Amino acid sequence: MFKNLTKQELKQNKGHIFQLSEIAKNFNKCFNNIELNIDIKYKNNFPIILDINYLKNNFLFKKEIFMKTTYIDEYGNTRYYEDVFHKIIEDNQEEKINVQQFIIK
Hints:
The chain is α+β, with helices and mostly antiparallel strands and 105 residues long.
């Protein structure tokens, strides 16, 4: 069963907002003039695709896509398979595809 969150529950707390701003500052110091566009796609309220676009001067020079697939277990619960598919495309050239595993014990 899913719970619908209220606007108050969706808001970030001050400590989390501070940490996000610190991470943004550190990223900008290390990767000057690089912009990230991030998109998350959902299936039945579960995030399954993370799409990261790297841009410099409004030019897309790298793209990373992470994908996890779901299944319904014997109790009717949605679960993730362990494999994470990772695709990298740089400078519109040949893509690299990796399979990683994320195991929770």
